[in-house]
Amino acid sequence: MSKVPYLLQRPERRTSCVVFASPHSGRDYPTEMVQQSILSPLQLRSSEDAHVDRLYADVPRFGAVMVSATYPRAWVDLNRRVDEMDPALVAGVTRVGLNPRIASGLGVIPRVVAGGRSIYRGKISREEAEQRIRTVWKPYHRLLQAVIDESLALFGQSILIDCHSMPREALSVVRSGKGRRPEVVIGDRYGASANPGVVSEVERAFRQQGFEVSRNVPFAGAFVTQHYGHPARRCHAVQVEIDRSLYMDECTLEPRPDFSDIRARVSAAAEVIADIGVERLPLAAE
Fold first, then answer.
1. In this predicted model, what pLDDT tens digit does every residue of 230-244 receive, in sequence order?
2. CA pair distance 221, 273, nearest whole angstrom
3. Does the record bear Hydrolase in its keywords (predicted)?
4. Contact between 222 and 80 (Cβ < 8 Å)
5. How many domains does the chain have?
6. 3-class DSSP state of 1
7. How far apart are CA 93 and CA 113, in angstroms?
8. What's the CATH code of the domain at 198?
9. What is the pTM for the complete model shown?
10. In this structure, what DSSP letter does residue 47 have?
11. Fewer CB within 10 A of the end CB, N or C, for the chain?
12. Residue 285 domain flag
């Protein structure tokens, strides 16, 4: 088990207001989880954004900060509100209203992995759930807030790129503006989490690298973009989802032979994004 729930990678000299973060690529599965789970280790990893942190590993070279989770999404989901507890998994939790994420088993402490497969045979204690939040969720978000505040202090604005990958099957009925299946989905909560100019620059960066890009469908952003994206405060948050079948075998989670090529294209897009600055993007009041 990791002693620190995140990996913070800083540039030698920070020149960018952009913060890249990968909340779902953690792969340090606690021994007790593996022992308690009714799934195989590979099945446990099925909801992991495997290798996303590797795709963006060059970010510090571009003067930007990179934050990566070390614990897996199946242990605690850093892209959920801290109070999104699932009463079907956590003992002593009372259901309050209808939350589709919780209902599907994808609360802050997930009940299922990809395909709706249950992780545990029964429930876990509320004490255990709260310990995961206290030791993993809260330290990760304290750090993320700290580097965002640093961006504001140094550059007058902050741009958070929330890095994810998506299963190919999620795109089966989705088409980009050109009628093609998207390879990258940019999420800004339909304009609520980032200035339109920032979002356009992010989209342009991926299009320049030959990716088919669409916006907000089927992923518009979740807790991270909602919580950290406040354009009127000069804080922008943009979610980036990449089709994971482009760079890995979705069954084995092993990188494809051309992984380095995809990584180079993502890295080139990240370099352009890291260069987004206040001078070129006047901020409109919201």
1. 999 999 999 999 999
2. 18
3. yes
4. yes
5. 1
6. coil
7. 20
8. 3.40.630.40
9. 0.93
10. G
11. C
12. no
